[in-house]
């Protein structure tokens, strides 16, 4: 198959920042792209060969879009799976497959999948709705505290809540859910695995999410994770096992906990380029976006090693600011060695909206960590 | 000035591969771009915010284009300078300035400039036309052999010829020219210098052009150059001096000869991103394209050090093939560690047309060099 400067067409469902960073790679290789997104101001409107405005959840819209391309991928899981299934049955290559997506989209079936395949994960119970869960708690079938998770539609911390007492149930939607044992953990880790249709598999190094000591919020994604080699090897081996069992194609980001006693438990997976892999653009021999592209086109996978240590800081809209965005002090952080801001191209900021990220690279991880802290305390995402 | 996700507009004259790689950086920073190019199939048609088809040599076209932007730059020197001068006089920031461009565009004034400023360069004489040059040769005022260079319009080896005897004059256009002493040199080197309007200056490491042992053609651009530290330091110091005297803004690629006795002579300069800096996309902390953008926007310059050794191989159309391009064996080179092809997006190949380049990076420069040779002997740019 000739992908480069040819009539071949790659379709991408979703035109947000993940799609935008994927387009950097399709442009580099001159591979034609069609993108579908509901917003006329999607970051992928520029850089794609053809942009289509339309709903990702509407069967006909997704189906008609998919019929025009040779390979179809997505940068967001919330898409019409039935349309993907029909497209796949009609010979369009859909990567990751709708079957994988179905397994992953529902956190209940995802957890069952880990259990069935002997992949370590926190203990859990599934419930048809919150009413049934409350009954189980009242009958002492579930011990407090525990973690409530909506099985569908959760995103970026939405659909997850720690239940400490009966008051914690207030405001929860009465949807299908799971109750998961709370795990006291040392570290939250992630490993990105890539797999091609031919079965070539590679893992990226383990990254570590460093949390703010008070606010329970990820502040830095750090590669390599500052953990023992044995723990890192185990985490990569488990991620590889997850990938093999899913039989997926493309990127799979595997989020994990390192427990107090150094066990690795799989938390959840995302079948696409992932926030925890953004550092790879500057730090790795092959960025996660190029790797995803190589995978879904069944090209050889690139080297996943790092050239240098990398740390990523998310740029989110500051509280109290809405409207046309200003990146205050961005010129100050550009004055630091090894600092690269990525601006996603959203004109309007809102509190906590993901507006961009900054990567800090250095030969010395401690120096990168120092600069990352300075970056974080300097740049502000505010409005005019 | 707020450049990021704002109404600020950067204009780029020329929409070829250099512009295309610059657009990767403007997209990363979400800086709006307008691009002007005569071809409707220019690589920059995708990735720019607005694309204009039109002549770069036509006064009105360039002037009217420039009036719509805040800062104007170019990826090719063959543009209408009078229009740039008028735009600059009307307050549009033009970087590099038309004054610098005028000095550089004519190889005669460029050579005079080096002489005036005590910058080492090969001895030369200027002639109004080839007829006058022939007379000088007949009168033994110029010794054979020497290098003939057309003062204007030369590009990629056009407008340059070694004159060994009177037959060598055959076919030369009767234009303004220089006759330059032939320099027996060990190495052809280049240094990229970047300067901001505020006067911040940084040089990249010295790169080396490795020639094919028989055909007199550059095969590899290698960073760092495999030369003595003292020679490298001298080359960077001379490049810095050239930049300071030109007072230019943006990138300046300074091409130099290392003579048999280790002197450095400046050959010529290009006031824009340059083929000799393509390695920087994968190998450097800051790519030459990001650096050019930082410079013309008067942002702090990035770190010019390399993370790893980098080697670049040009992908040019193979002799005997014209038409819709095929990159034969590209999947094979993708299977090698640290190999990144850049495909410029020209649908049709022609003999010697620049269609792309491949960067090879590695911690070990000897290993990079080995892989580069394998890449060069594997990939072929042919037609369907």
UniProtKB/TrEMBL annotation, chains A, B:
<comment type="function">
    <text>Catalyzes the ATP-dependent conversion of 5-aminoimidazole ribonucleotide (AIR) and HCO(3)(-) to N5-carboxyaminoimidazole ribonucleotide (N5-CAIR).</text>
</comment>
<dbReference type="GO" id="GO:0005829">
    <property type="term" value="C:cytosol"/>
</dbReference>
<keyword id="KW-0436">Ligase</keyword>
<dbReference type="InterPro" id="IPR054350">
    <property type="entry name" value="PurT/PurK_preATP-grasp"/>
</dbReference>
<feature type="binding site">
    <location>
        <position position="149"/>
    </location>
    <ligand>
        <name>ATP</name>
    </ligand>
</feature>
<dbReference type="GO" id="GO:0034028">
    <property type="term" value="F:5-(carboxyamino)imidazole ribonucleotide synthase activity"/>
</dbReference>
<keyword id="KW-0210">Decarboxylase</keyword>
<dbReference type="Pfam" id="PF02222">
    <property type="entry name" value="ATP-grasp"/>
</dbReference>
<feature type="domain" description="ATP-grasp">
    <location>
        <begin position="111"/>
        <end position="297"/>
    </location>
</feature>
<dbReference type="GO" id="GO:0006189">
    <property type="term" value="P:'de novo' IMP biosynthetic process"/>
</dbReference>
<comment type="function">
    <text>Catalyzes the ATP-dependent conversion of 5-aminoimidazole ribonucleotide (AIR) and HCO(3)- to N5-carboxyaminoimidazole ribonucleotide (N5-CAIR).</text>
</comment>
<dbReference type="InterPro" id="IPR016185">
    <property type="entry name" value="PreATP-grasp_dom_sf"/>
</dbReference>
<feature type="binding site">
    <location>
        <position position="107"/>
    </location>
    <ligand>
        <name>ATP</name>
    </ligand>
</feature>
<dbReference type="InterPro" id="IPR011761">
    <property type="entry name" value="ATP-grasp"/>
</dbReference>
<keyword id="KW-0067">ATP-binding</keyword>
<dbReference type="GO" id="GO:0004638">
    <property type="term" value="F:phosphoribosylaminoimidazole carboxylase activity"/>
</dbReference>
<dbReference type="InterPro" id="IPR003135">
    <property type="entry name" value="ATP-grasp_carboxylate-amine"/>
</dbReference>
<dbReference type="InterPro" id="IPR011054">
    <property type="entry name" value="Rudment_hybrid_motif"/>
</dbReference>
<comment type="similarity">
    <text>Belongs to the PurK/PurT family.</text>
</comment>
<feature type="binding site">
    <location>
        <begin position="180"/>
        <end position="183"/>
    </location>
    <ligand>
        <name>ATP</name>
    </ligand>
</feature>
<keyword id="KW-0658">Purine biosynthesis</keyword>
<comment type="subunit">
    <text>Homodimer.</text>
</comment>
<dbReference type="Pfam" id="PF22660">
    <property type="entry name" value="RS_preATP-grasp-like"/>
</dbReference>
<keyword id="KW-0547">Nucleotide-binding</keyword>
<keyword id="KW-0456">Lyase</keyword>
<protein>
    <recommendedName>
        <fullName>N5-carboxyaminoimidazole ribonucleotide synthase</fullName>
        <ecNumber>6.3.4.18</ecNumber>
    </recommendedName>
</protein>
<comment type="pathway">
    <text>Purine metabolism; IMP biosynthesis via de novo pathway; 5-amino-1-(5-phospho-D-ribosyl)imidazole-4-carboxylate from 5-amino-1-(5-phospho-D-ribosyl)imidazole (N5-CAIR route): step 1/2.</text>
</comment>
<dbReference type="InterPro" id="IPR005875">
    <property type="entry name" value="PurK"/>
</dbReference>
<dbReference type="GO" id="GO:0046872">
    <property type="term" value="F:metal ion binding"/>
</dbReference>
<feature type="binding site">
    <location>
        <position position="188"/>
    </location>
    <ligand>
        <name>ATP</name>
    </ligand>
</feature>
<dbReference type="InterPro" id="IPR040686">
    <property type="entry name" value="PurK_C"/>
</dbReference>
<dbReference type="InterPro" id="IPR013815">
    <property type="entry name" value="ATP_grasp_subdomain_1"/>
</dbReference>
<dbReference type="GO" id="GO:0005524">
    <property type="term" value="F:ATP binding"/>
</dbReference>
<feature type="binding site">
    <location>
        <begin position="267"/>
        <end position="268"/>
    </location>
    <ligand>
        <name>ATP</name>
    </ligand>
</feature>
<dbReference type="Pfam" id="PF17769">
    <property type="entry name" value="PurK_C"/>
</dbReference>
